[in-house]
Amino acid sequence: MSNLAQALAPTCLMSTVMRPKATTYTKPKTALPIIKTLSLQDFNCPSTRPQFLKEMRESLMEIGTFYIKDHGISGNMTQGAMKTVQDYFALPLEEKKKMLIGNSRHFRGYKLIGEEFTNNQVDHREQLQFGPEQSPIESFVPGCSPNHEGLQGPNQWPASTLALLPEFQPVILDFMAQLEALSHRLMEAVALSLGLNMSFFRDLFGQTPYYRLKCAKYPSVSKQATIGCGAHKDTGFLTVLLQDTVGGLQGQDPKTGQWMDTRPVPDTFIVTMGESMERLTDGLYHATVHRVLNNTSGHDRYSIPFFFDPALHAQIPARISGLDQATYPRYLHSGEDSSDSEDESSFLATKSRAEAQWDAMVESLDSPDLENTITREGWSNGDHVFETVYRCHPEVYSRWYNREF
């Protein structure tokens, strides 16, 4: 045996005989990402817009979440909306049952505690859901028409409830209108952060975007025996959330799987991306996995998420071509919209190459029946939204729709 072999032999033997057990290894925890607070005023100001977009992009690439302040919705409006929701949930149960969601073909109304599942867990919350106030499609026929056409329609407004809470209807409708305007503005910022024309998503969403306002009450309990809301990703494009001061919302770091407390920050909304944006950006922007811990604070918790999506008839492309994870869009350094840049031809050339790569990938697929089928055409937003609400509220489907799954 050579001198080198003799020197190494004891070390090799030791590593073989005394190898530590896997269970003794503890993976070190890494520092959790910081959820940034961004000011919409910085987006509105040309001189600060590039920095705003840079920080937005970093937040959405890292965790998919940020707080937004200076958003243009007054404190009186947010406080009034929260009080109205609290007043509704304080009504007698028999009064709230007049708005049961099963009464509405359009998936609008009240849901009792313990009747919704998220990630196969029973949610410990009461809920109230609204959507755009519209006339129903009169030609809709269950089982014959596209199911998503049944989503269009009015909200429930029982006369006895309005008599008890005269501010209920006007406050909810006004709050939804202001959240719709804010969401459009945020999607303009998202478009620019991706190097797209500011109007990209407004053009995609159309004149009648579909949205849902969900009002939730998480009652305080003596012990954490259940989950307030199970871990999940929102399925759509954008969520804007108003929460009270109790806390309990957590987001998951996509890199480590660790849970981060999304603490209440006064005068802000929490903004998160949904799975549609994650898919559309080919994973560049994250859809945040989040959950709500059971509430043991001694005070009931209230939250009001607003889910913002394209029109129900919209066809969504499979992905946005030409997005580059390694570099920021060139306009971030100049504050310009990508459509106005001098090097537009270079940008279009990059997009063309990416589109060619995407086409080649699609053509190479062995099976046309993959889960979440990938096609050049993308998907129907109406079908996607209907599948989401159907899973959450099967009692509405069983009463109003006629389709075999």
Proportion of helical residues: 25-40%
Indicate how many domains the architecture comprises: 1
Structural class: alpha+beta
Shape summary: globular
Quaternary = single chain
Record field, number of beta strands: 16
SSE arrangement, N to C: HEHHEHHEEEEHHHEEEEEEHEEEHEHH
Estimate the strand proportion.
15-25%
Q: Which strand order do you get reading across the main beta sheet? A: 1-2-12-9-14-7-6-3
- Could you tell me the mean pLDDT? 80
Q: Rg from C-alpha positions?
A: 25 Å
Biggest sheet statistics: 8 strands, mixed
Reading off the top of the CATH hierarchy, the class is best stated as Mainly Beta
CATH architecture: Sandwich
The low-confidence parts are 1-28, 326-375
- CATH superfamily caption: B-lactam Antibiotic, Isopenicillin N Synthase, Chain
Reported by name, the CATH topology is Jelly Rolls
Distance between the termini: 71 Å
